[in-house]
Amino acid sequence: MTTVSDSTVREPAALRAAMVSALRDEGAITSEPVAAAFAAVPRHLFAPDAPLELAYDLHRTVPVKKDENGLDISVMSAAHLQAVMLEQAGIAPGMKVLEIGSGGVNAAYLQELVGNEGEVTTVDIDRDIIDRARLCLDDAGYTRVKTVLADGETGVPDGAPYDRIIVTAAAWDIPPSWISGLTGNGRLVVPLTVRGTTRSIAFDRDGEGLVSRSYRLARFVPMQGEGAAEERKVMLREGVALQTDDVRVRLTAEVLNHALDAPRLERWSGAAFDLPDELELYLTFHLSSPARLHAAKDVVESGLVEASALLGVPALVSEDSIAYRTRRENEGIGVGFESGVIAHGPQAEALADEYVNLLRHWAQDHRRRGAATFRYLPGPAPTPLPQDAVLRRHGAVTVVWH
Length: 402
Ligand SMILES: C[S@@+](CC[C@H](N)C(=O)[O-])C[C@H]1O[C@@H](n2cnc3c(N)ncnc32)[C@H](O)[C@@H]1O
Known about the structure:
Elements: H1 4-25, H2 32-40, H3 52-55, E1 62-66, E2 72-76, H4 79-89, E3 96-100, H5 105-114, E4 119-124, H6 127-140, E5 146-149, E6 162-167, H7 176-180, E7 182-194, E8 197-206, E9 209-217, E10 232-237, E11 240-244, H8 253-261, E12 265-272, H9 276-286, E13 290-295, H10 297-301, E14 313-317, E15 322-329, E16 337-344, H11 348-366, E17 372-378, E18 389-391, E19 395-401
Parallel strand pairs: 3-4, 3-6, 4-5, 6-7
Antiparallel strand pairs: 1-2, 7-8, 8-9, 9-17, 10-11, 11-13, 12-16, 13-14, 14-15, 15-16, 17-19, 18-19
């Protein structure tokens, strides 16, 4: 006989099995240890107030805490992203792992992966979150996970060095403690925001610095505390903004806004547009004066700015002009879309030329997934700063293409 309590006991297990199977199908889980960890941890116990379907959803996060403006500052990360990052981390039994940004469930996966011989520490800057994580971990039986209340910027030196450090808030920089806190062949998996886009990057140690092994697009709540992002954002007009993390870029709102009213120049590259995140990475590291253009839906509907700016698009700016990427359907070049450029202002021609050349180069030489390698070089930036280096407080990020 099936009682109500039987069915409530069985339902999470069925949802969990379906989740693991779907994560395998989508390529997020690629190894048996990660599959076993996801099959073992009762994920719903870390989201006790959420509907079961949400707790076991592949792509949706579960809200945990919002700031005074209603923006998420803590969520239970989506299962898909957690699986991808755990695969990137390559965790083995017996390892010592630090998680920066807690919630409980990911720490439980980590404990499953390192086993009884391993150690997991999770640190959060927010007392409510770390207390909640502790309760959930205990409730689910993961009493061995160590919980720490601190700003993850300084790592958790007590337990260092770690074989793996996994960061689960969007980082803007890599503080020295994350590098020195790794063993010689340790790995850091961090959602790093560069030029306005966040990628989960698996970094191995490389001399004093770090070199990437893999990267995947990711979305995370922002890092708080000492490591919070420093970015300039200017509103050109209602619903149109430019943002940059490049100290060399000048953004003069009034003049650039004026440029938008100048007639538009349209240039087409004759090159394929696909793999937008890979193209974007290439563009943002090669444009001589990069920013990110954002436009609201009503501005796009008015025809002033192309739809590519709805989610933010790499822009090339000069003092008085602006150029950004667009696309159009074009079956003649063998793929669905062709990339192009819209430019405004007195230097529209020059900006469009520079931009279109980059679109062509990328399509010709680098149009594939994973063509880039990131490096993080700690310490004072070289002067003059190479064009393709992104400066941070503690070092610089560079990318090479293969
Ligand atoms: C996406 S949530 C973490 C999700 C969690 N790992 C899980 O198991 O689902 C990000 C967390 O990072 C925390 N955080 C933000 N800045 C931090 C910092 N500087 N140090 C430690 N934790 C931080 C937030 O308080 C938030 O709880």
